[in-house]
Amino acid sequence: MSNSAVKNISRENRPDMNNLAEAFIFVIPAAIVMLISGVFSAIFSSSETSFFSLTRDELKAFQRGTRSQQLVAQLMKNPDRILTSVLFWNLVFNLMYFSANVVMTRHLLSNGFAFAGGIASIGGLLCMIIFTDVLPKCIAVIFRRHVAALTSPILALAVRMVKGFIPYFDKLCHALRLAFWPKLDVEPLLDIDDLERAIKVSSSSKSIAALEKQVLQNILELMDVSVEEVMRPRGTYFTASAPISREDLHGRLPPDGYVLVVEPGSDNVTGAIPLGSYTHVPKLHLEYTAEKVIHVPWCAKLSFVLTELRARLRSVASIVNEYGDTIGIVTYEDIIDSVIEIDPSRTRRVLQRDPVVRLSNGEYSVEGMTTIRYLSRALKIEYDPPEGGLVTVAGLLHEELEKIPSVGDVCEWQSFRLEVTQVTGRGRLKVRFTPLENEAIEEINKPATSSSSSGVKPRAAKES
């Protein structure tokens, strides 16, 4: 064999350098696009997980944190918009990643690099799953506070860029739903019948089932109870106007854990300082750390107030009357206590004593702040909401007596005789409830006792 023939054979077995150079011309830009799109996909995946893993308390703490943390709290006020933006941009960068991966693989295969093309295809898919989805989500769950703060500027920019398109997305989704599922109805997240069935099929012991039933009843009552029945009335919470210093607290923490900031010379609440969540209280200008309050009318239902507090990341609601004046407040903890407590009572929470005390003679000592709903449950009588929007025993006495009650005032309500036994300077009352049947028995026994003591026998009743 001649030397020229050997050279031709070796030339044929040698890789075509021109093909290799041409392949790398497309491989390097495609790899750069995959890297960039993969990084952004990982950022959006981790931001979604970290944002929606934050608890309500953490979001409230973010409101008083750094600028990036405040941005997280601001974005989470509209979680649906965040989720739509994250899913949109995640889809965009994933499509970019796979498009670049397909281009890289096709060029490697077309230039005779079959093994390299297979590695690029399978390796790109594995990298997409592990490094842009699974690993970022795991890190975001563990370090959710840090990841949320770091990714908040990027997410805020992404939300702003698609903000104008979101209404059109909603209209498109609505049109598609009408076209393909015209009879699709939106179901409630939690139906009352579902709650009742959950209690019935519970396999817990009788004592636990009774507790579950009471909690269920408390949950259902959120839709019926007005906030006026749960609120802390004006004068039962600590208020101060700016400037507020640590010395104004006199070394004591308010029972509800909040200092309510009011307008100078007024009782209208404008902010709430959550001292109960502070590890260190500043010496001066505590009003700078106050969070905003929401304002709701006295007739609002507890379910509505709870929803508003959670949606706006607030802790305190100011209750106003028809003139816009503050008549009380209710805290987030007050509403939660009214759900999880077996025997929830505003009087016990505010005055630190039982609202209804049974006396030895069958009578009851009742605080004027006690709601008529609670009183009916304690006396085991049917609850009949009084006319005129009356809520408390004190309001009932005002209606019956048509004046400010004083010690010794008497009136009747249902099957009880009410007698005012104590009145404090702030108008707080204590009322003795006596069943009318007990009084009837006493009236019958009085003449018989007096006649026997005087030696005169009581007359026999004439037969009809």
Low-confidence stretches: 5-15, 448-464
User: In which range does the helix fraction lie?
Assistant: 40-55%
- Spatial strand arrangement across the major sheet: 9-10-13-12-11
Distance between the termini: 152 Å
Output the helix-strand order: HHHHHHHHHHEEEEEEHEEHHEEHHEEEH
Helical region count? 16
Structural class: alpha+beta
General shape: elongated
The residue-averaged pLDDT reads 83
Beta-strand content estimate:
5-15%
Q: What Rg do the Cα atoms give?
A: 36 Å
- How many domains in all? 4
Care to count the β-strands?
A: 13
How many strands, which pairing sense, and closed or not: the largest β-sheet? 5 strands, antiparallel
